[in-house]
Amino acid sequence: QITTLINHKDKPKRSDKTLQAIQRVGQAVNLAVARFVTVGQAIADENHELKEEMDVACIEAKRAGETIAQLTDVASLYHPESDSHITIFTDKTGIVKAARLLLSSVTKVLVLADRIVIKQIITSRNKVIATMEQLEKVSTFQEFVQIFSQFGNEMVEFAHLTGDRQNDLKDEKKKARMAASRAVLEKCTMMLLTASKTCLRHPDCESARINKDGVFHQMRLALEQVIEIVTDSRSNGENELASISIYSGIRVFKNKVEGLRENLYFLSKENLSTMLEVILEHTEDFTDSAYTSHEHREHILELSKQAKMGLEQLFSVWMQAQNQKTKDLMEDLEVAILKMCQCMNELKRELHSAATSLAADLLTYHTDHMVLKALKITGVEGNLEAIAEYTCKLSEQKEQLVEMCRLLRHVSGTEPLEITCIHAEDTFQVTGPQIISAAETLALHPSSKIAKENLEVFCEAWESQLSDMSTLLREINDVFEGRRGEKRVYLSLPRPGKHNTNLKALKPVKLDTEEQAKIAKLGLELHLLTCEVDSETEKWEDEENKFVQHVQGMSSMAYSMYLFTRGEGLLKTTQDLFHQAEIFAAEGTKLASAFHGFPDQLHDDGKPLLLLESEKLIPMCQQLQMTAKTSVQGKSATFTKVDACIQRTRNVMTLLCQILPLCCRLLKKAMGNSCLKAAPPWKENRAQTGINVQCPERTDEMLGLKSLENHVTNMTFLEQG
Q1: What ranges make up the beta strands (E) of 299-359?
Q2: The two domains 1-75+89-113 and 127-233 share their CATH topology (first three levels equal)
Q3: What's the CATH architecture for 1-75+89-113?
Q4: Per-residue confidence (pLDDT) for residue 483, from 0 to 100
Q5: Contacts with 95 (C-beta within 8 Å, 6 or more apart), sequence order
Q6: Which in 70, 126, 663, 708 has the greatest CB count within 10 A?
Q7: A GO molecular-function term, please (predicted)?
Q8: Regarding the domain delimited by 358-481, which CATH topology (the fold level of the hierarchy) does it fall under?
């Protein structure tokens, strides 16, 4: 709008339409500035240390906005007696000065607001670290539960702040690093829970302590990296991407070679020779790798040899052309440049083929997770010799996957994907030893269900990372084939079931990576709410109680919706999610009826409150059902519907978190403690965990573990009902 005002053409004759348009633009600018200033002043009131600077900047912005409004008030042009009134037409320099002042003051406000955001993230990080230190020192289960609840709330706040920051980042490298750090924190939160519980349950077990310490260390590193990104500083120097990838080297080398067409003297032979040497040095990562096929190794060596010869030929023609610029020599130079670039392209293609074919083979080979399954079985058997054998096999698998990540990093094609490869490599490096320590703990305590569940969590983190590698491999191939930037739509094959009828019309799709990032905060909130609900239902002795089954079924469905926001779990498409939301809403309505049938013998003052709260369930569930059934078209509308379904599900779960403690209190008063568990310090009677490759964060005894088999049973039962 400001640009429009400054660039308007000075014409002798101005139509009424033009005058009115200019006046509207000036008023719109002033109104927008007024709103902006209101927000800035509100921020200033909440942050006294920056209030003075913010107030000054806001006053300047407001003054500039009012000046622009006055200069564009062209109504005076209709009145001859107002000839002395200064307008945009009589003094264009005035509008330029006002615009500069406005942009300057707005920039100051934004910079100050940014400082406040950074401070909020640092403060939130400090809270998380302080609570983590308390968690490390706890010695009783009850104390741990209390502090972990606080820790969960602080992690949600941190996720909100860092999620917003990630979306605001313009630098793709920083955005990728932030996403990687936030992913580590999210996964480690559940690892921290089970590892800490295992350590509390088996305080003298060295492997359990090592396992727990590893998780805390990993979280601290991730928290530190977030702060480095936010404050734009690195404690150990900027060395993360020091070793340049082969693709980057080839791209720069080709640009230099092609630059010889324009200027024969801007580059020395030594510089070009050194650049090729560095590239060929990096190809040794492929040729020296034990996992590179013989055929790929031979091709890479042959192409490296051709590249050296091609550069020598280029040098020869180049030197001659510098001495004598004849037409024939320039044509020879062009041929040499084309041959050199073609050779580098072939080398690039061969390296890409070597890395991606290795990755595809490894991911296919390890898709059955046989080593992890064997570790779980031998751990429960207490077979230490077998554990030692399979930990060696897992270490070999880890080395293969780490090597795969290193080679993929070379051919990733973009810096964000390169960072993702680094993150994947780090994950395998760290998670492998953690699985081994968890397996050793289980083998030493084979009857411990807490140790068993802890091993499940780390195994599922490994499986989840393998699944992520498949996505990463597709993205690397997209870049290589020039499809970068296109939104990939994943169409899902129809699956047998009641909800298959509308698949064709509704075009079921998965959320892409960007959409998952946007909805991640909501998903994490939903995750923690399901944990809280499960914690409450575990206090009930009669797990066959219809009321308890309703709540557990809803919690299981809400958790599957959380997994959908991560691109995991049984809900593969948006249509699956909408169908699940419908079933969830229907169960919520049934639950509201169950509240009305709550034991009539309860005459406590709290019963009216219970009924009042339960009444809120019905409209909430009706809203969710309407949202899920509403037909939409287009990618944007579908994502909006997904967001609305997750939000409404979160609202229902929040209400359940408020109702359940009240139910327990009322029953406890009416019937004594017979309906409630005695809350022993350790619970070893939970159902055994099934192997679940989809749900890495759910294996959580204290917060209500549900096996995949139980989850599928609940979904099938609800669909049939």
Answers
A1: none
A2: yes
A3: Up-down Bundle (1.20)
A4: 63
A5: 5, 6, 68, 71, 72, 88
A6: 663
A7: actin filament binding
A8: Four Helix Bundle (Hemerythrin (Met), subunit A) (1.20.120)
Neighbouring C-alpha atoms within 13 Å toward the C-beta of 238: 6
Tens digits of residue pLDDT in 371-418: 999 999 999 999 999 999 999 999 999 999 999 999 999 999 888 999
pLDDT value at residue 78:
53
The DSSP code sequence of 169-230 is ---HHHHHHHHHHHHHHHHHHHHHHHHHHHHHHSTT-HHHHHHHHHHHHHHHHHHHHHHHHH
Query: Using the 8-state DSSP alphabet, how is residue 445 labeled?
Result: S
563, 535 Cβ separation under 8 angstroms: no
Q: Determine if residue 82 is left, alpha or beta; phi over 0 gives left, psi from -120 to 50 gives alpha, anything else beta.
A: alpha
Q: Is 398 within 8 Å of 429 (Cβ atoms)?
A: yes
CATH class of 127-233: mainly alpha
The partner residues of 509 in beta bridges, in order of sequence, read 491
Q: What tokens appear for 30 in the block?
A: 């002033």
Amino acid letter for position 282: H
Rounded CA-CA distance 29/88 in Å is 14
pLDDT at 684: 34
Query: Which residues, 6 or more positions from 649, have their beta carbon under 8 angstroms from its beta carbon?
Result: 526, 558, 561, 581, 584, 624
Residue 486 corresponds to which amino acid? E
Low-confidence ranges of the chain (pLDDT < 50): 12, 80-85, 235-242, 485-507, 601, 673-721
pLDDT at residue 687 in the model:
31
Beta-bridge mates of residue 540? 676
Q: What is the pTM of this model?
A: 0.63
Q: How far apart are CA 387 and CA 310, in angstroms?
A: 54
| Domain 513-671: CATH architecture, name and number where available | Up-down Bundle (1.20)
List the domain boundaries for the chain. 1-75+89-113, 127-233, 246-356, 358-481, 513-671
Q: How far is CA 166 from CA 358, 380, 468, 488, 518, in A?
A: 32, 42, 20, 22, 10
